[in-house]
Amino acid sequence: xxxQRQKHIPVMLKEVLQYLQPKAGDIYxxxxxxxxxxxxxxxxxxxxxxxxxxxxxxxKVRANEFKNLYADRFxxxxxxxxxxxxxxxxxxxxxxxxxxxxxMQLDNAERGFSFAxxxxxDMRMSCDGESAKDIVNFYGEKxxxxxxxxxxxxxxxxxxxxxxxxxxxxxKIETTTELAEIIYTILHKHAGDIDPATRTFQAxxxxxxxxxxxxxRGLKGATERLISGGRLVVVDFHSLEDRIVKNYMKANxxxxxxxxxxxxxxxxxxxxFSEVSKAIAPTPAECFENPRARSAxxxxxxxx
Length: 304
What we know:
By secondary structure, the protein is α/β, with parallel strands linked by helices. The chain has two domains: 178 residues, Rossmann fold (3-Layer(aba) Sandwich), CATH 3.40.50; 96 residues, DNA polymerase, domain 1. The chain has 13 helices and nine strands. The strands form two sheets. The chain has a seven-stranded mixed β-sheet with strand order 3-2-1-4-5-9-8, sandwiched between helices. A two-stranded antiparallel ribbon has the order 6-7. Helix 2 links the parallel strand 1 and strand 2. The N terminus is likely disordered.
C-alpha cells in the first residue's frame, strides 16, 4: 500500500532502512515526520507500527493521509522530539531522526527559513514562540554575536551583529531579504561560493528552535525507550549536530577493557550501546540526484 507520491526525497533512505532493520510486530518512531518519507518506507518494509512525531502543525494534513492508508499501524503525535519520553511511553524497536530544517519548510517561503525569497523573518518550526525577527530586533549586540558564532560558526559574527544594531536604529528588520542585504554589506557574494548569509540564517534558526538542546534531549529519550537490540539511527547535516550525535553515542558505547595484552578485549557491562557506527556518507549517486544529501552523515547505535 503506497502513500501519495513523495514530493521531497528522504535523505539516505536506503541506509536508514539498512541500519534500522524494521521487524514485524515492533514499534518504530519517526522523530522528524515531515513529509513522511521515512515513515512510509518503514511501514512498507515490515508489518510493524510507526509513531511519528513533529512539532510543525503544517504536517498534520500529511499525517491524516497516512492514518487513512495505514490505520492502526500509524499514529501521529504532535510535539518536539526533545519531549520523546513524554510523547512515547512505549518500548520501541528503533527510532530515526532527520535533524534540521525540512525541505518543505525551506521551500515554503512564508516560513522565513530561506533568504532566497522575500518573506517575513520567522523560522519557527512550531509556528509559535520567539521568532528570528524578535531576535534580530531585540537582542543585544553581544548576544547576537554569540548566537552567530556558536550556532553558525560565523567568523564575522561581531561585525554582522554590529551592522544589525546599526540598521535597526533606523527601522525594524522585517524580512529575510532585508537581513540578507545587511549581511552582504559585511560579506560580499561571489559567484559559485556558498551564499554568505547561510551561516547567519542557520544560527538564527538553531537559536529560535533550540535545535541542539532538542537533539540532546531527543537522543536521550529515544535511548531510554529502546528495547534490547533496538536501534537508533540519526541523519544530520552539519558539524554542530554531528558532534553532539557522535559524542553521545561514544559516551554511551561499550568501553573496551583488556585483562592482559594476550587476552581479547572485553566490553564493560555498564554501557548503553553494544555497537555504534562511524559517520556514514551518502553515495555520490544520491548526492547527484538529491543535492540536499551532500552534507548528510548517518550514525547508528544498537542498544545492549
